């Protein structure tokens, strides 16, 4: 397993460092232009999972890397788990970087080209750093769950063929959600009550724990499906 993780990481470590520099620039632009650290952290954290999925998929199609990786003395199951772990670890690392950028921005906000209202908004956010972290965690979790839909298809069929199936799968999911949810819950009242509950800083730890459980559950199910599909792949 360790060999699989390291072989995957070695292929993209330079790209990951470059992306951290991009996240810094993008984060500062978003934070200064929008005058909020929560949106900044959420945007940066949401970028990482999907970028990493497509970065790995791109490397699979370059220079026969996918076939070379399959010749390593590592089980196919370990290769899939390594891919999922690398995407997850990279996403968490990006969340940490985004949170640090937010804290620095919060300290520098009085001397940055921000209006008084934005400075006050950021100062209020700095009083509840866990809320800032929660915003980033929500962005990361949402895109991680979305990437969970993509990875089994990408690993089984490759990026090019997967893109033929993914839009249809997402359409079916979208139709299922839009048709079933209105029959199950009173959406407007439910959303309003939930939004009010989430806005309470005291509930943020519960929100993060709940999101973590749901995201990891979906991620593990996706990984199991990807393992089953990848076993049948001919390289």
From TrEMBL:
The keyword rRNA processing does not apply. Keywords: Membrane, Transmembrane, Transmembrane helix. This is ABC-2 transporter permease. The chain crosses the membrane at residues 12-32, 38-59, 80-108, 128-150, 162-184, 204-230. The keyword Isomerase does not apply. InterPro entries: ABC2_memb-like.
């Amino acid at each position: 397993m360790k060999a699989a993780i390291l072989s995957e990481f070695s292929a993209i470590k330079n790209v990951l460092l470059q992306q951290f520099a991009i996240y810094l620039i993008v984060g500062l632009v978003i934070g200064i232009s929008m005058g909020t650290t929560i949106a900044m952290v959420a945007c940066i954290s949401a970028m990482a999972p999907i970028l990493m999925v497509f970065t790995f998929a791109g490397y699979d199609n370059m220079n026969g890397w996918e076939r070379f990786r399959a010749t390593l003395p590592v089980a196919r199951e370990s290769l899939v788990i390594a891919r999922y772990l690398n995407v997850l670890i990279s996403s968490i690392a990006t969340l940490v970087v985004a949170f640090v950028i937010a804290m620095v921005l919060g300290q520098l906000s009085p001397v940055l080209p921000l209006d008084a209202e934005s400075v006050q908004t950021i100062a209020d956010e700095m009083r509840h750093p866990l809320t800032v972290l929660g915003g980033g965690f929500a962005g990361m979790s949402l895109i991680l769950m979305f990437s969970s839909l993509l990875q089994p298809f990408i690993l089984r069929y490759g990026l090019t063929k997967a893109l033929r199936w993914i839009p249809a799968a997402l359409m079916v999911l979208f139709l299922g959600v839009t048709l079933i949810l209105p029959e199950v819950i009173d959406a407007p009242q439910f959303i309003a009550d939930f939004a009010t509950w989430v806005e309470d800083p005291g509930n943020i730890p519960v929100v993060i724990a709940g999101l973590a459980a749901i995201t990891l559950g979906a991620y593990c199910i996706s990984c199991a499906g990807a393992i089953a599909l990848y076993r049948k792949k001919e390289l």
